[in-house]
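Take a record:
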Amino acid sequence: MKKNNHMKTFLTVLFFGAVWGIVEATLGTILHLPAIRIAGIWGGATTILVPIAFAIMGMYYKQSGNARGIAYMGILVAGIKAIVCAIFALSLRPCAYILLESLAFAGVVAFVKPKELISWKMFGCFALANTVYLLSASFIQFAPFQYGSAKWIEYAVYSNLIAIGYTLVVGLIAYLIKTFVKTPNIKLDKIILKPYIPVMMTCLALVCTLVLR
């Protein structure tokens, strides 16, 4: 039984980690296009991509109830990114950001223990994890003498507030849909526990990251 639980955790980490990796590669590329960058922090990766990553981690936690697996997801996605960075001699900084995201959310979820994905508790996890992540990431993004500068405030404060606002709006919309619209009850276990699906999705995440580096 214990062996089966370990395999289930492994496959669930692969599945949601692959979803995160695919989103990181595809949406991350789109958000760095010149036409999108005109929007500034309102359309930046920090304000859009990071909350989506937290949402995927939240879905994993809802499915598994295992906060530690969120850190494993971060290792998987950062590992995929690191392979591509090593092949093309790119900066490993994005890998550090991914690890920080997963550690921040894993720590907050382990402490708060939210039971539902669409709930005030989970929103609190998103808000706290995003704040912890941005403050931690600022140690990589900025030199010590830049702390407190206008650019640092934009990154650690304003983009954080915008991201939390986006999360709140999307969460309220999801709550209304859940309350008033009858949606099909999809059993993800049936998909996740077919080993070839998580493995193929992980391979797809690697290919997307290679192509869209």
Remarks:
- The chain has a mean pLDDT of 91.
- The CA atoms of residues 22 and 207 lie 9 Å apart.
- The radius of gyration is 17 Å.
- The chain has nine helices and no strands.
